[in-house]
Amino acid sequence: MSKRFAHEPDASRFAYYDDETLLSTLDYVEREGAISLTRAFTSPPQRGHRYAGDLVEWAVAQIE
Question: In this structure, how many other beta carbons lie within 10 angstroms of the beta carbon of residue 18?
Answer without folding.
Answer: 14
